[in-house]
Specification:
mainly alpha; elongated; 74% helix; COG5_helical; Tetracycline Repressor, domain 2; membrane; 694 residues
Length: 694
């Protein structure tokens, strides 16, 4: 309650001061005493202002006195706490001073031993460095003398000399040995000795690769391994083979080199196009160079394969680590394992670039692509020996390998064939050749069937088409995949010929009439059918004479089936007309009278039994068809089955209608028997004579 009373009094005093215009200014935050005094002086109301201010001071003194009286106990407690705090601060000050004195004493006790330890440690480090340097000097001197004796031992001591050089390199690595008089001459001599050993090993490696001497190659690799440069040496050697092969490819495809080979007096800068009449000579030179290029590729692949074999088998005699593991330690797909892929990429790039630069090379490779492909196939056949990495004749027998690496090792567990890499480099030329091949196959057909022509092809024209087909198939027979591709072109060719022939077929009524004389439409259709059949027979004969892949023959066989289907569709309406007419003649059997008791003539007076009129009509029709219709067709083998089916159908109709006859007399029976004999004879004659003559 007292606190609330005091607060209410304080608020009352503040309200009183705030309501007074004189004291209101003193409550403002930005009150300026000097400004207020100047205003009072200028207003000349100094006395009143002083009196007013005195009243305000008295009011505030009274309020302060009231506050002190009311809160005197709290104020006394705070004064006592201040005295206690001063005592605590004095105590802490004395303790801090004592701590500083203790630290000074400890510092004096530690600093001297520390300086001594630091000095002795520095001395020890220098002694150790000196001792290490002395040990290195002693060891270098010893190894230098040993190296001198090893170098005098010749090639047999090369591996040991390389090991000594490797240790010397380790001793001199990261250490400044300059200024040591004992070693100045030795260091220069060691550098020269390293160059000499490296040169000897390089010569040994080169000689071993040329002669395929596995012992020399293994010794050279051991030297480089001892020198610590095995991986670098192998990569450098493989890279040199790549560059050499790339240079050979570029020189082989350089049109200027071909020109110089033909004319040594040719000056630089002449046109890179052979003169008319010299194309054959240029191409002969080109293909001779291509054969040499294939030999070069085989040689390089053989060298890489040989190195891989030795690396797979050779182990360090000290650590027993396989050299191939050392090569693949940092790079699982080392350049030596991707050598084959890099060759195929180089071939594709160089061949494509050369063809773009020279129209002659482009025309040669596209026009004679089978010849180029044959060279590739022969190369791949020679490279087959590198596929079997387990061949004892191709491995180094100086150790045991966990994995025997070969030229095509990366492709053993993949679906990608190394042969595909090789042939893919010629994909551009293959597509161009197939396009040209299709054009060559279509050209004779387009000449035989010009736009708007209605005349059927002649035998010579069909023979020309077949000759073109045989030529393309024979040329493509150098490669199975090319044979399949060309066979698809042949399939398209046969389909085109079939479609063109189908457009010429006449389907009007006069093409299938069989009672009147032969019409022009029938003659035209017969020629078309004969030429279709001749095309089929000639193509079938070609397939029988050429050893072709199964897929290639299947593609052509499908087109030949379509051709036979067209022949069947062309002759089927005619055969149906013949069958219908013969059935109509057989129906006339019901117009005959077979109720006679005896024959109208005496059989003894007539050597041949009499027959009915419809039989004579049937025989005349068969003779007409045989002489005038079927004789037009030269596809007897194709028509045999269909004619036999037609004959069987007519005989079936005849027997069925004979069985329907009633009121047969003895004479009628004998005449009917004579009719049957004549029908049988007619169709037997047809089977034995007419069908053979078709």
């Amino acid at each position: 309650m007292a606190g609330e009373t005091i607060n209410s009094k304080s608020s009352t005093v503040l309200e009183t001061l705030r309501e007074d215009t004189t004291f209101e200014k003193f409550l403002e935050k930005d009150f300026d005493a000097k400004g207020y005094a100047n205003n009072v002086i200028q207003s000349r109301a100094i006395g009143e202002c002083l009196e007013k201010l005195a009243d305000g001071v008295r009011l505030l003194d009274k309020e302060l006195h009231s506050q002190v009286v009311t809160r005197h106990e709290d104020l006394l407690q705070q004064a006592t706490g201040i005295e206690t705090l001063e005592g605590v601060l004095q105590m802490m000050t004395s303790r801090i001073t004592s701590l500083q004195l203790s630290i000074e004493r400890i510092h004096q006790q530690i600093s001297d031993p520390y300086e001594k330890i630091r000095t002795r440690t520095s001395q020890l480090r220098r002694l150790q460095t000196t001792c290490d340097l002395l040990r290195r000097v002693i060891r270098i001197s010893y190894l230098t003398k040993r190296l001198e004796s090893q170098l005098k031992g010749g090639v047999k001591e090369t591996t040991k000399a390389a090991q000594s050089l490797n240790e010397l390199g380790y001793l001199m690595e990261g250490v400044d040995l300059s200024g040591i008089e004992v070693l100045d001459k030795d260091i220069d001599w060691i550098k020269n000795a390293r160059k000499e050993v490296t040169s000897q090993a390089q010569n040994m490696l080169t000689q071993g690769m040329e002669t395929q001497n596995q012992t020399q190659v293994a010794t050279a690799l051991q030297v480089f391994h001892n020198l610590g440069s095995l991986q670098q040496t192998v990569e450098t050697y493989v890279q040199s083979l790549r560059e050499d092969l790339k240079s050979t490819i570029a020189n082989t495809l350089d049109i200027q080199n071909l020109m110089y080979a033909q004319n040594t007096n040719s000056a630089p800068g002449r046109a890179a196009i052979p003169a008319p009449g010299n194309t054959a000579m240029w191409r002969a030179t080109l293909w001779t160079g291509m054969e040499k290029l294939m030999d070069k590729i085989y040689s390089c692949c053989g060298k890489v394969h040989h190195v891989l074999k030795v690396l797979s088998k050779k182990r360090d005699p000290v650590t027993h680590v396989c050299f191939m593991q050392e090569i693949l330690k940092e790079n699982k797909k080392s350049g030596i394992l991707t050598f084959w892929e890099s060759i195929t990429i180089t071939l594709r790039e160089e061949f494509t670039g050369a063809a773009q630069k020279s129209p002659f090379l482009k025309q040669a490779f596209e026009g004679e692509y089978p010849k180029l492909l044959r060279l590739y196939n022969e190369l791949w056949t020679r490279l087959q020996q590198f596929v079997n990495t387990g061949n004892p004749s191709n491995v180094y027998t100086g150790g045991v390998a966990d994995v025997v690496y070969g030229l095509f090792h990366l492709y053993q567990d993949t679906h990608t064939s190394p042969e595909d890499f090789l042939k893919n480099s010629l994909s551009g030329f293959e597509n161009a050749y197939l396009s040209r091949s299709l054009s060559r196959l279509f050209d004779p057909i387009n000449l035989v069937f010009p736009a708007g022509a209605q005349a059927p092809p002649s035998r010579d024209e069909v023979a020309g088409i077949v000759k073109t087909i045989a030529s393309e198939l024979n040329v493509a027979n150098v490669d199975a995949s090319l044979s399949v591709s060309v066979s698809r072109n042949v399939e398209k060719t046969i389909q085109l010929y079939t479609a063109k022939s189908e457009q010429l077929l006449v389907t009007s009524a006069d093409a299938y009439q069989v009672e009147m004389d032969i019409s022009g439409a029938q003659q035209k259709n017969s020629v078309i059918v004969n030429m279709l059949y001749e095309m089929h027979q000639a193509t079938t004969k070609i397939l029988g004479n050429i050893s072709f892949p199964k897929h290639a023959k299947e593609a052509i066989s499908i087109a030949l089936k379509d051709l036979l289907a067209l022949i069947e569709n062309a002759v089927e309406p005619l055969l149906l007309s013949m069958q219908k007419r013969m059935e109509e003649i057989v129906y006339k059997i019901h117009s005959e009278d077979f109720s006679n008791v005896q024959l109208s003539v005496n059989i003894s007076d007539t050597p041949e039994a009499p027959c009915s009129s419809y039989i004579n009509e049937l025989q005349d029709f068969i003779t007409h068809v045989n002489r005038n219709v079927l004789s037009l067709y030269n596809c007897g083998d194709f028509l045999v089955n269909r004619l036999n089916f037609m004959a069987a159908r007519v005989l079936h109709v005849f027997v069925r209608h004979v069985s329907l006859l009633r009121n047969l007399g003895e004479g009628g029976k004998l005449r009917l028997a004579a009719d049957m004999a004549q029908v049988r004879g007619s169709f037997s004659l047809r089977k034995g004579g007419i069908l053979r003559g078709v």
